[in-house]
Specification:
41% of the residues lie in helices and 22% in strands. α5 (149-159) packs across α6 and α5 (149-159) runs parallel beside α7 (193-207). The radius of gyration is 23 Å and the shape is globular. The strands form three sheets. The chain has a six-stranded mixed sheet, sandwiched between helices. It has 305 residues and is α/β, with parallel strands linked by helices. Among the domains are: 1-29, no CATH class; 134-209, no CATH class.
Length: 305
């Protein structure tokens, strides 16, 4: 057996069997997938998360492209662009202790941006640097529906590098904050969206990752839960953690964010002071065409002009 890859060897020549992937990669002159992945990891890892002077997230002119679906007829006889840029020329920096809000209409690229932060998607252009452990919390993501809430706590904690003893110590805090009572020991498939939101937020903030990403999580749940969530986010800020919050609620972002980024069609329309950006966004939502006509300097780049 090969000591590196556990593939069978030719015992006579001590070489891999014909067609072995590592040999094929070598013949092509391409790095192996493992090497490519390591290169990507190096390019994103940044410095130690203990270095408080280093930004936690840096996006530098980032672009992400998908291919539109095309039928066989279209591929053979119709020549049209199939590239769809879900993100284009995205640049921002997030430091320790900061909370960045991301707002925009449906389909503007908000959730896609969060998936680039978690390295689910690799950018096609630009550079991304992530300095710390990332936890993405989105409705319907990360829970095994057949398992109970308590069992999902153990799974989530394990994925974030905690052992069972550490998770057990944090369990009372998670249960108290989630406040879902006996449903903690019921399958997650029986939960309402608000209950999933409560439990997910409780896990994510009790474990305290370096970078917390919330994708429309605080849109569900009652007012009492949202108030508790905002208070806990304020505590996280004081502990020098940072957060990226995706929301459709301008009022919510005004309360908890240090800065806001407004996306439209995969591009940044405006970013900066929450009051300034969110006031402009609310006016835009009332009459998009009128706002674009009155402020062409913001939408020329978005529309590709």
């Amino acid at each position: 057996m090969c000591p590196k890859c556990s593939k069978p060897l030719d015992l006579k020549n001590q070489t891999h069997e014909p067609g072995h992937q590592a040999d094929r990669e070598k013949e092509k002159g391409n790095p192996s997938p493992a090497r490519a992945d390591a290169d990507f990891q190096d390019s994103l890892s940044g410095s130690s998360s203990e270095d408080t002077a280093s930004p936690m997230i840096v996006f530098d002119r980032v672009g992400l492209c998908f291919q539109k679906h095309a039928s066989l007829f279209e591929l053979l006889f119709k020549k049209r662009k199939r590239d769809f840029w879900a993100l284009k020329e995205i640049s921002f920096t997030l430091h320790r202790g900061e909370t960045l809000g991301v707002i925009g209409r449906n389909g503007s690229g908000k959730s896609t941006l969060s998936l680039v932060c978690t390295r689910v998607y690799l950018p096609d252009k630009g550079r991304v640097r992530i300095n710390g452990r990332v936890q993405l919390l989105a409705l319907g993501v990360g829970f095994e529906k057949r398992l109970t809430g308590r069992e999902n706590v153990y799974i989530s904690g394990s994925l974030l590098g905690l052992d069972s003893t550490e998770i057990q110590k944090r369990m009372p805090e998670i249960e108290e904050f989630a406040d879902i009572g006996e449903f903690m020991d019921e399958p997650v498939r029986t939960y309402s969206s608000g209950m999933k939101s409560r439990l997910g937020f409780s896990i994510a903030t009790a474990i305290r990752p370096d970078i917390l990403i919330l994708d429309e999580v605080m849109a569900t749940g009652d007012k009492a839960f949202r108030d508790k969530a905002i208070e806990r986010l304020a505590n996280l800020q004081s502990l020098a953690s940072c957060a990226l919050i995706i929301s459709h609620e301008p009022g919510q972002l005004k309360k908890i964010c240090h800065k806001v980024l407004w996306l439209d069609k995969g591009r940044i329309v405006m970013q900066g002071d929450p009051a300034t950006v969110l006031t402009a966004y609310e006016k835009f939502c009332k009459n998009p065409l009128q706002w674009q006509n009155d402020h062409p300097e913001f939408f020329d780049a978005v529309m590709g002009r």
